[in-house]
TrEMBL record, chains A, B:
Keywords: Ion channel, Ion transport, Membrane, Transmembrane, Transmembrane helix, Transport. It comes from Sesamum alatum. It is a multi-pass membrane protein. InterPro entries: ALMT. This is Aluminum-activated malate transporter 2. The lineage of its organism: Eukaryota, Viridiplantae, Streptophyta, Embryophyta, Tracheophyta. The chain crosses the membrane at residues 48-67, 73-93, 105-125, 131-150, 157-177, 189-211. It is found in: Membrane. Pfam families: ALMT.
């Protein structure tokens, strides 16, 4: 009896510890999730705002159900307004607008074609009607599905094609049962339009999140990240008392943004003019700027590899290239900072030009310091890493010029303010000659390789 | 009168030429679109098959409307089956299955919660009911929208969360008007399940397109593309009679596939066992293999830059590194080919090991040929490009080893056949020693830098 009691106690204890462990696990998971949520919210507080905006939009549209005078007009079709809000509401205004337009136009076209198919089919007998309807649904949905593979259509109208198939099938097929097909199509279209406009309006008027603005800031920040690396590089590579290397790793995020950038460009193209950006701002050019930034970031990544490599060139060899390398890297850094500043303030970054010219001069000086006569009795294997670093920095000068070119092109396309012109007007001195010289230097390539 | 006639004729002529020009433009656009369509279809004939499959699925599900005995059960709710097919049917089985599961489970959960909210609210008075329902819709949709920002949830359950919000709002809000809320939720769930299973069944049983198989083949093809470049590189760089450089540009497509790969992995994770792949094949490992392939492709891209550079090292300098470079590049090419072959046949690529070992030996030989004493009276500027090429090829050897390591890991995880073990069993000689030596060499890094 005592042993049985003991067994019971033991069993209870193990059950208790099991339950306790399980409970602790759940609590842990919840705590982790809460921490993640806090981090997500702190990283970008607009996420929290966006969530509340979605909740608000859905609640507002569901008012159709609560008020009799609203409900009477649409009846059950009011659910399409709710569905549209849920499906169309995206993070940025551009994405929401794009999806809304896609859904609206596709519903219009699909509905019209569905009504037409139903009318055509209803002239025949009942058996033939179902066959004609079935065949038209088959062919039109197959065709529209194939259209979704066209890259250009996929980029901007993928969702519209989907909704086109959906509406066409629903309207033409339901028409077989319900003769009020025109009214059905009309109700569906108007509820979709109501839902879509509710989503777009709330998206624009309550703390709007513009994809274009995000894209613009992302580009400027990325250029700045490269500048931060190049600023610190000389100190890290050529001086023995090393600082904190990890502080230079900021550029790494630049290598990952490609897909994000394309999504932002596609969204931004839908956006109306806002803030400093007019409608039809040259968003496509940002992809080109992004490509040149990434090219530079890959070179910087290679450079970072030498920074962290265990096999180092002796200091006395490094010091031979130190002056020109440090010069190039710091001048590139300054030029990039000026470009980023110009982007942020939307002015032409004329002040980047002198830095680029200095970097080019330093590259030419490097050439003369690389004559063998200056390196007697040195093991080639010791020289190679230093030479590779120097050659990478020369490449980075070319990359910086490419970035400057593409930013310059962007400035021309979107008509940034021209500080030089302002000054020329103020002082009355023609600065055209200087400006054309600068333009010429932009298109020049570095000849040292 | 005559001049009026002439004017009329002139007007008619210009109208005619305008109409003709316009018509020709339209014809041109149609011809271009038809050519694009033909190209898309020839590139991957499965696109055409997929389009017909979608048409078939939608037509089949719309049968609900045509046959009375089917229509009676569901009535207007049958449209949810059509909607589900249109929205869920994706190119690959995995993506379709994932979306179908997401939609099914989210409809179940959202519907259950919606019914519960409606029941709870109906205990109160009518005014309080609408307020409670509105508040619950607001909070739950805001919460679920915020959950969509969690990266892990976004990757696999984004669509499910959307459908959850949708179903919950629809069921709880419609319940305010229609007391048959349980029946409504039940009908919606069963039609969604019917539509989802129709999509999945047609996707699996008519010419299935497996995301996993695509991913596997893509990986093997990418490795082969790198091998093709390295095979041709020695010939192109060290011999004066140059062949067709463009034939070496195949590797460039490897640099672009990253986003595509992640989509394929996420889809493949949903797929049941198929063909040579069991359920829970280690799909995640393909991302690691892909990363190492891309790393190698970037080095190859840099190498390609030197191939096309106008500033070339004199041939007599290049010839000093020719032997070891050609050796390294061709051995890496052979190793990569063996790895690709192993992947394709799903056997462990033991035969890649000797090639990697040869490449390492060549890398060590290169080290001794880079002593300054062998290069008297040479301009360092002439040596640097050749040295950079040599150093890049050494990097490519390390990259090849990384690819071999990750493929090897994949082979272990997915239990590829082991040809060495088969031979050992056949000949009766233990080959364990060799195998362990190979494994050791895989984890060794090249020491030449």
């Amino acid at each position: 009896m005592a042993s049985e009691n003991q067994e019971n106690v033991k069993g209870l204890k193990s059950a208790w510890s099991w339950a306790k462990g399980y409970f602790e696990k759940i609590v842990n998971v919840v705590i982790c999730a809460a921490k993640d949520a806090k981090k997500l919210g702190e990283e970008d507080p607009r996420r929290v705002i966006h969530s509340f905006k979605v909740g608000l939009a859905i609640t507002l549209v569901s008012l159709f159900y609560y008020f009799d005078f609203l409900y009477e007009g649409f009846g059950v079709a009011a659910m399409w307004a709710v569905i549209t809000v849920v499906v169309v509401f995206e993070f940025s205004v551009g994405a929401t607008f794009g999806k809304g337009m896609n859904r609206g136009i596709a519903t219009l076209l699909g509905g019209a074609l569905g009504v037409a198919a139903h009318r055509l089919a209803s002239f025949t007998g009942e058996n033939a009607e179902s066959i004609i309807l079935g065949l038209s649904v088959f062919w039109i949905s197959a065709l529209a599905t194939f259209l979704r593979f066209f890259p250009k259509l996929k980029a901007r109208y993928d969702y519209g094609l989907l909704i086109f198939i959906l509406t066409f099938s629903l309207i033409s097929v339901s028409g077989y049962r319900d003769d009020e097909v025109l009214e059905m199509a009309h109700k569906r279209l108007s509820t979709v339009l109501i839902g879509g406009s509710a989503a777009v309006l709330i998206c624009i008027f309550i703390c709007p999140i513009w994809a274009g603005e995000d894209l613009h800031n992302l580009t400027a920040t990325n250029i700045e990240k490269l500048a931060v690396f190049l600023e610190g590089f000389g100190r890290e590579y050529f001086e023995t008392n090393k600082g904190n290397k990890a502080s230079l790793d900021g550029y790494k995020s630049v290598l990952k943004v490609k897909g994000n950038e394309e999504v932002l460009v596609n969204s931004a193209k839908w956006e109306p003019g806002h803030g400093r950006f007019r409608y039809r701002h040259p968003w496509g050019q940002y992809l080109k700027v992004g490509r040149s930034i990434r090219e530079c970031a890959y070179k910087i990544d290679a450079l970072n590899g030498y920074l962290n490599s265990e096999m180092q060139t002796p200091m006395e060899i490094r010091s031979k290239v130190q002056e020109s390398c440090t010069k190039m890297s710091s001048e590139c850094s300054c030029a990039l900072r000026e470009l980023a500043k110009g982007l942020k303030t939307m002015t032409r970054a004329m002040s980047a030009e002198p830095h680029i010219r200095n970097a080019k001069t330093a590259a030419k000086n490097l050439k003369s310091s690389l004559q063998t006569s200056l390196w007697p009795d040195t093991d080639l294997l010791d020289i190679i890493p230093a030479a590779a670093v120097a050659s990478l920095i020369v490449d980075i000068v070319s990359c910086t010029i490419k970035i400057a070119d593409s930013v310059h092109e962007l400035a021309c396309l979107s008509k940034f303010k021209n500080p030089a012109a302002v000054i020329a007007n103020q002082t009355g001195q023609g600065r055209v000659a200087v400006a054309s010289d600068i333009k010429g230097s932009l298109n020049l390539n570095v000849v040292v390789e």
